[in-house]
């Protein structure tokens, strides 16, 4: 929640959602409530012994960081990951 609080104070994020299922828990952050999530922070205990239970996922489904330690995984959000608008 500390990372979320800092990003809200900076004006980057405004809303969040929690989704719980039998195999994972997801914390999604939004720029605006009506949009798709900017990032999903997922905990999947089934992957704990292999790749790590925690991951940060971008809107397109790209896993930005995965690991066993939540603090290290969330560090990818502290470095100022920004979405680049598509050109075309």
* Unreliable segments of 5+ consecutive residues: none
Task: Report the helical percentage.
Answer: 10-25%
Number of strands: 5
Oligomer: single chain
- What general outline do the C-alpha atoms trace? globular
The residue-averaged pLDDT reads 83
User: Can you count the helices?
Assistant: 2
What is the strand arrangement across the widest sheet?
1-2-3-4-5
As a percent range, the share of strand residues is 25-35%
Structural class: alpha+beta
Give the biggest beta sheet.
5 strands, antiparallel
**How do the SSEs run, as a string of H and E?**
HEEEEEH
How would you explain this protein's 3D organization?
The chain is an alpha+beta fold. It has one domain (2-78). It is 19% helix and 30% strand. Strands 1-2-3-4-5 form a five-stranded antiparallel sheet. A hairpin with a 5-residue loop joins strand 4 and strand 5 (63-67). It is globular. The model has no long low-confidence stretch (mean pLDDT 83).
Keyphrases for this structure?
single chain; 88 residues; alpha+beta; 30% strand
Brief overview:
The chain is α+β, with helices and mostly antiparallel strands and 88 residues long. 19% of the residues lie in helices and 30% in strands.
Write the layout of secondary structure elements.
Elements: H1 2-9, E1 15-20, E2 25-30, E3 39-43, E4 54-57, E5 63-67, H2 70-78
């Amino acid at each position: 929640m500390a990372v979320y609080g800092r990003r809200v104070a900076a004006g980057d994020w405004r809303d969040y959602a929690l989704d719980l299922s039998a195999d994972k828990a997801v914390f999604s952050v939004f720029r605006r409530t009506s949009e798709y999530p900017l990032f999903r922070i997922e905990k999947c205990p089934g992957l704990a012994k292999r790749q790590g239970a925690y991951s940060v996922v971008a809107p397109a489904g790209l896993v930005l960081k995965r690991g066993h330690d939540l603090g290290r995984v969330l560090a990818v959000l502290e470095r100022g990951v920004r979405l680049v608008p598509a050109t075309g």
